[in-house]
Design brief:
By secondary structure, this protein is of the alpha+beta class. It has 18 helices and 21 strands.
């Protein structure tokens, strides 16, 4: 065989091998494609079909997607109200004149506001609609991107327990303040119900598809508070009748449970953007978040320290001229216009809130000792009920305790600041004969069947005051309502005890006088502590005491005795 022919045969064999190799590779690829198509079209059919459907679906939330907040008796405090709302999907809603006018017609909002929100928003918009709508109007069905649904609203329109519950971010539904913020990890990510609408390629409803209700999560964690719905309702109604800013706290003396907590002015949780721009303090929970001079309420602390140092002060006769010279200034007593109380004992001075006696006492017992006692009683420290906003108040220290400082310290003025919550804790401590039951507001975490998943950790009680000393203070607080500055409790004087306070302060450059009253009932076996703070109320006895009286009367009428 010639060399040329041999070479040709060798080349042919190489080409045949290459062709066979290419054929084998092609066959494997072909088989792989068939297997892949079978996997996609048969085995994974349901999965990919669902994904395609998802691309043609929109999800309309019909609840808050957050766990419920409940009162102590499992009465819902959130998600109570169901109302019709307009859901707008900006990517589908055509913001032309006719559509915006229709939206204005059903919501009652301004044209420019609606146009700007729809035009600029990348998120789903929600608007409350009027009650008197013509539901036969075909525009409800034909307007693309507009859906009218019944939705459970997170918060009541009347603003019940707003400052305690707090508010949420309307975009991502995260808690921002109050219970919503402090317990966001528990309340968020709960079962969310949505209406699922299936659309065609033109974003119109597919015939026969309509809506379907779906739950996105099986998690269910709700939070039960110590708040009593009925007591909270009473406290809110009474302070609203007064039309004055301030705070009310009601607690259970025997357990430390907070039964009611009110702050005024109120705010609308559904319109937080408005309040964030406001120059007012309506978003502040004045029960815990703002500290004020306690005025004569602080005389409780001075009295305790004086009796601790020398019980014989209780029998000493003091002299009240109607004013007391402190350094280069004169501090007036409530008896100034009458020429003073004259000779007066400590218990009567406590009942009638005599500044002169307590200034004299403060000079004797020392400002440092008074401040140390105040700290032991809870001032200058948060009570720690679990809300992030809690304020620790303030007590003077260092050079601020020297010289004439005893004048302000004796009557709870100057740099002494306290929250209504701290004052309520002090009241509860005295009513308990010196035993401190730590206040708390969160009871437990429960599931949808109200089965407890986790109990709150409550600090153990502490004996803070000598019981006999506390009992003496209780007798003096009783005299306040019987014959002293708290006489305006009127018919309740036999079963109540407390202490008034009128505290001078400066707010926005203006001089104001805050009104305080903190007390408890019944006196024979104390059950409820009630603290009233009225911002610029002028008189503890004239303003705060009547509010206390009305709350106690209403509570007793409902059986809280």
């Amino acid at each position: 065989m010639s060399r040329i022919k041999r070479k040709r045969n060798e080349c042919s064999m190489v080409n045949i091998k290459r062709l066979l190799f290419i054929r084998a590779i092609s066959f494997c690829i072909f088989i792989g494609l068939i297997v892949r198509l079978f996997y996609i079209q048969v085995i994974k059919y349901d999965f990919y079909n669902a994904e395609v459907i998802k691309q043609r679906q929109i999800s309309i939330p019909v609840d808050s997607g957050r766990g419920l907040i409940l009162d102590r008796n499992f009465i819902p405090l959130t998600d109570r109200i169901e109302q019709k709302v307009a859901i707008i999907f900006p990517q589908h809603f055509v913001a032309n004149t006719s559509n915006i006018l229709f939206l204005q017609e059903i919501t009652g909002k301004e044209y420019e506001e609606l146009f700007n929100k729809v035009k600029n928003s990348k998120y789903t918009l929600e608007f409350s609609v009027k009650d008197d709508l013509n539901w036969n109007d075909r525009r409800f069905i034909n307007t693309k991107g507009l859906f009218i649904v019944s939705k459970r609203m997170r918060h009541d329109s009347n603003g019940f327990l707003n400052h305690v519950i707090g508010y949420i971010n309307q975009v991502d539904l995260r808690g921002m303040s109050g219970i919503e913020g402090a317990m966001d990890g528990v309340l968020s990510g709960n079962t969310g119900k949505s209406l699922i609408a299936t659309l065609d390629g033109r974003k119109k409803f597919l015939p026969g598809e309509g809506y379907a209700v779906a739950s996105t999560n099986n998690k269910s964690q709700n939070l039960r508070l110590t708040i009593d719905y009925h007591i909270q309702r009473i406290a809110e109604e009474v302070i609203d009748e007064s039309s004055m800013p301030g705070s009310v706290i009601v607690s259970d003396i025997q357990t430390g449970e907070i039964l009611g907590m009110v702050s005024r002015p109120n705010f609308d949780p559904s319109n937080i953007s408005y309040h964030l721009k406001s120059k007012g303090d309506e978003l502040y929970n004045k029960a815990i978040q703002m500290a004020f001079p306690p005025g004569s309420i602080f005389k409780i602390v001075v009295a305790i320290e004086a009796l601790r140092q020398n019980p014989l002060y209780a029998d000493e006769i003091f002299e009240c001229l109607g004013y007391e010279a402190v350094g280069e200034i004169e501090i007036k007593c409530s008896s100034y216009e009458k020429g003073g109380h004259g000779q007066i004992t400590m218990d009567r001075a406590f009942a009638e809130s005599c500044n002169c006696v307590f200034i004299q006492l403060a000079q004797k017992i020392g400002t440092g000792n008074i401040i140390n006692m105040a700290e032991q009683l809870g001032f200058n420290n948060i009570v720690d009920i679990g809300l992030m906003e809690e304020n620790s108040g303030n007590l003077p220290s260092g050079n601020d305790l020297l010289g004439p400082a005893y004048g302000n310290i004796a009557i709870g003025q100057g740099q002494i600041l306290a929250t209504p919550l701290q004052v309520n804790q002090l009241t509860q401590l005295i009513a308990n004969n010196g035993l401190k039951k730590f206040l708390y507001i969160m009871e437990d975490i429960v599931d949808n069947d109200y089965v407890t998943l986790k109990k709150s950790n409550i600090a153990k009680e502490q004996q803070v005051l000598d019981s006999e000393l506390a009992k003496k203070l209780k007798l003096w607080m009783k005299k306040v309502t019987l014959e002293g500055s708290g006489r305006q409790v009127e018919g309740l004087s036999n079963i109540t005890a407390g202490k008034t306070g009128s505290a001078e302060s400066v707010e926005n450059g203006e001089e104001v006088v805050h009104a305080w009253f903190t007390g408890y009932y019944p006196t024979n076996s104390p059950k409820y502590a009630v603290t009233i703070f009225i911002q610029n109320g002028r008189s503890g006895g004239g303003v705060a005491v009547p509010i206390f009286r009305k709350i106690v009367e209403k509570m007793m009428n409902l059986g809280y005795k």
